[in-house]
## 1
Amino acid sequence: MSVVSSPLPPGLTYSSTPVAYHGADEHDREPNRYGRRVVQVPGHTWPARPEECSEGRAEWVSDHPDAPLVCCGCGLDVS
């Protein structure tokens, strides 16, 4: 599997932990086909891991032009 990564704004990093899938419901989870990773935001802890996430919303983590769109529940880059 190839890892998809975009440039991140200063201060943000990608987690090195592999993500197998996104979603807690075994009937509704999505395989991580594109190697997407969790964005680490200083001073913020995501409520869940992608494999345990039940959140359906995503938000931009900053106003920076390179800011990724991330899942609000686990920080998975969904851009």
## 2
Amino acid sequence: MTGPALGADVDGSQHYCTYSSTLSTVTCPQPAAWHILWNRAADASFACTEHMATVQRELTYYDRHPPHPDCGMPGARWSVAEKRCGYPADLAQRASQAAAEPVGSPS
């Protein structure tokens, strides 16, 4: 499998599928079901359920998670460990809180 051909930057803040059969125009109007991180350089896009199935069959990707309100927002970062996007201070705080919780504590 190979990574995708990356086309034009697309505004993903609305969380719709950013599939493009032409690499220049988004051709799928469906709501996004997945936020995909293509590589460690942070190239990312959104996919509906149908196009995520295509990705899984035909392409390689680094990580994925369901869309979250922070996904695609300026300053947000991908957390592979948490399977979500967030802001650096929020992600660090969540990680330190999780580390401080005793084993077996209710979540």
## 3
Amino acid sequence: MKQLIYIVAILWMCVGCKNTYMAASSGIDEKASIILITERANKQKYKKGEVLLHIDDKIYTVDKIPEVKYAMKARLFAITQGKHHVVVSFNGNKVYDKEVFIGRNETRKIILR
């Protein structure tokens, strides 16, 4: 009889300790982003002209390109995750032209030299 009481007590404690909390991942954003930054030596070069960023079929005009050490102040260009064709042009000349793969919640830095 004593063993039966112990077994029931142990089973009751195991059932009472069940974790009822579930992890929710609905708040995770499925976006990736691209930022444009420049080296200190070329900072003045990109102020004098028009910089265009082409991501697949979309074209963005970039007003200000910060230095590498001020990358946190750079404008984020939000895109979907996956493979994209990225072209950066300065006064009509291609400065950067690559196919890039960007994962979920990844920020790709493009350093203009």
## 4
Amino acid sequence: MIVPRLEAATAEQRAAYRRRMRWRGLPWSVGMLLVSWPIPLLVGLVLYRLGELIGLWAACTLLVVWLGFSMSTLVRLSMTKTMDAVSDPRMPRRPTPEESAMLDLPWRTTLLALGVPDSTYALRVRDSQGSAGQAWPGGVVAVSAEAVRELSAVELEGLLGHEVGHFVGDGGSTWRRLSWWLSEPIRLPFKIGGRLAGRPAVLLIVQPCVFIGLVTLLVWLFGAVGALALLGAAAAQLLGRNAILRRNQSNADRVAVDLGAGRGLRLYFERRRSKEIRRWYRRSLQPWWLRVILAVSEASSRDPNIGRRVEAIGNRIRARERKHRVPQGGPPPHAVRRAYADPRRAWLRRFGSPSPGFVPDPRAARRFQAGALSGQTWKQHGPRSRPGGRGPHGRPPGPSRRNPTR
């Protein structure tokens, strides 16, 4: 496993890392393009058939309005870095002085490790409800105000490193956003039903009714076979898109670890993991129906399993520490721990087994440890082969049955 250490890399190594991550995300961009068309196609066909009931001009007008609304929304989101939409609570804003005091150091550390200037990405704060951090179009990292208040500086650095990692190696973000806004008319009835329901108990009744009405509309417009084919393609798009999004999340985790923010990211996910339903029961005690629900929710989720994410982050941190460990002179660390950590064990290894209850002289033991921990290697100058010292098993060097000439 190749785990770079970007905070100690040169400018050329950081640029090569960014290029390598972009090339790795290219196949996933092609995959996102292939799986992003069924639901927009479904929306376009429904709008055309509904407008055709009035006339061809009405169908063309509906399609033009639909495409214009989607494109204008994408353009407005791409300008988030240059405008300050303070009046709109749904849009991110510039951080306040108190929030800047918490965010400036982690943000500058992340950009410095990545090797990009400060103007490449913009940091904003979002007041609306949602996830702790989001990567917006146009190179904007939006952090929720609640996360700024609750998370520590180390966790904020991990969160910012993860969100910047989306810009470095994500696959198909542009196609996903385009498909999302082109699919807005199909989500509009569900949003209206959710607003009218108000309470979660009523929402469980309203949303299935909206879905049944949508299926009835498709059967009326395209027939049973056509409606079944369109719904199957839409389900395939959802599964394929969420699989690529899970890959993007895992890739952003790896980038955060490479930037040196792995410890903070692991602490942040461990905080989220405490609220996960899987921790309510051990796997051996989970009923079968709960296992089925968790498996289906995991396959249809945009985020990987939190437990696996924490484990993968920990493995990458350990691999990073093993690869970049600085070698030191003297005996190996495991030999030092085994033979020289305890003065009594060191004395016994040097002079053999004394009588029970024997306590070695601490000064002699310290002198012995200081000599063993010098720059000499373990194999050449171990305690049993030191010139002038005693041989194996506490015997002084001299002739033996195997080597009489010794």
